[in-house]
Amino acid sequence: MPIQATTFGELKRSGQVRSVPVREELRRNLVAKMRARERLFPGVLGFDDTVVPQVVNAILSRHHMILLGLRGQAKSRLIRSLTTLLDPLLPTVPGCEIHDDPFAPLCRRCREILAERGDETPIAWLTADERYVEKLATPDVTIADIIGDVDPIRAARGGHDLSSELTMHYGLLPRAHRGIFALNELPDLAGRIQVGLFNILQEGDVQIKGYPIRLPIDVAMVFTANPEDYTARGKIITPLKDRLGSEIRTHYPATLEQGVAITQQEAWTARGGELRIPRYIREVVEGVAFAARREKKIDKRSGVSQRLPISALENSVSNAERRALLRGERLVVPRVSDVYAALPALTGKFELEYEGELMGGEAVARDLIKAAVAEAFSTLLGAADLKAVVAFFETGGSVKLESDAAAADVVAQLRRVPQLLEHLQALGARPGDPEPLVASAAEFLLEGLYARKQIGRSDDRGFIAPERVPESDVDIERLERLRRLKKQVN
Known about the structure:
CATH superfamily of the largest domain: P-loop containing nucleotide triphosphate hydrolases
Number of helices: 22
Largest sheet: 5 strands, parallel
Strand content: 5-15%
Distance between the termini: 79 Å
Shape: elongated
Mean pLDDT: 86
CATH class of the largest domain: Alpha Beta
Helix content: 40-55%
Radius of gyration: 30 Å
Strand order of the largest sheet: 4-7-8-1-9
CATH topology of the largest domain: Rossmann fold
Oligomer: single chain
């Protein structure tokens, strides 16, 4: 691109011709990236075999598109990454509100400047990011916000008639001319405003305030929506749906490995000190999100955002960092107890059904963590022979692990449990490793046994003998009756 051109004359002499339509530009650069085997959408993980091929097909077809998905499914990140398919620089007339092409200007001001100054007309250059316009649809958005309106102040200052093009204040859509216009949460846009998008999608032009001013703007339009809004509540009007070329469904990570990779990429864990996040902690945190998406007590229509494990991991690391600062430890290693301490990062990330509301958000979140620990334990230590460890508790042994206890104190207690430390190698820890790492791995092992109901645990994090498993319905009823009596006495 001839970035040295500063005037229209220089631009013409450089051989630069009129820009291609933006959807053709996206297609051309996409083809070039695919032939060069470049990654198409950096930072977007888990969609390579599902969503990305559909987006590629839409761009190759030069379609306007809509992404349907629950919250936290990287819809906004995906549409913002479309700017990587735009040319790095694009010539325009300086000061033009709609980034006019100097070879084919649309607005009257640019036409007059080019007619007056000719080859001496100055040229500015737009970056790819400057050609991206994004708007969150809300019920109070007006047609003037999206399309434009007549500006009486501009008319008065310039002495123009109100019907003159020079009095027009362009909305966001005309300002996205020669670029990408993204509208998030389309169903929240009022129906009469959606009608204003018809001509853009089909004929490529807009009319402002009913005046006979036709602006054949060139724009690639991308929308996002929640599928519940889109299909159940029917807020997107039918003629608008008909004009969208491609409808693409996003999704949450399909596997735990994908989820761990996304959370590792997005979570802020670079705290500047010595920090080690064991694999089992990452799997537990991610497993909470997977368990929540399966949980009947949580509203599936609302979804469980990928922000849940991201926030939970950050909060878990922060609790471990706080403990290390209190105990004077240099190495920070999160434990399962730190995941429980991250409840404030969990309870606000899901909507509860009626049964879940009766239990309460914290109780549901604790059950999710317990389920995630059980799954991670089964994967990593499911085949381990832990009979000696379980026998220690069955014969009356107990261990109390305070969440803020120093790693040395935790390890000292755990040495009393026969063969416990010998099973930590499968978790990436050995008895001679730094004490924070050993303490974290050993606590995970005990939490896993508790989650699988092989040992018990009191509310103050004391690991004890397992509760007797009822052998019949009579025993179950008796146990429940005893528990109710105990609550009444307390």
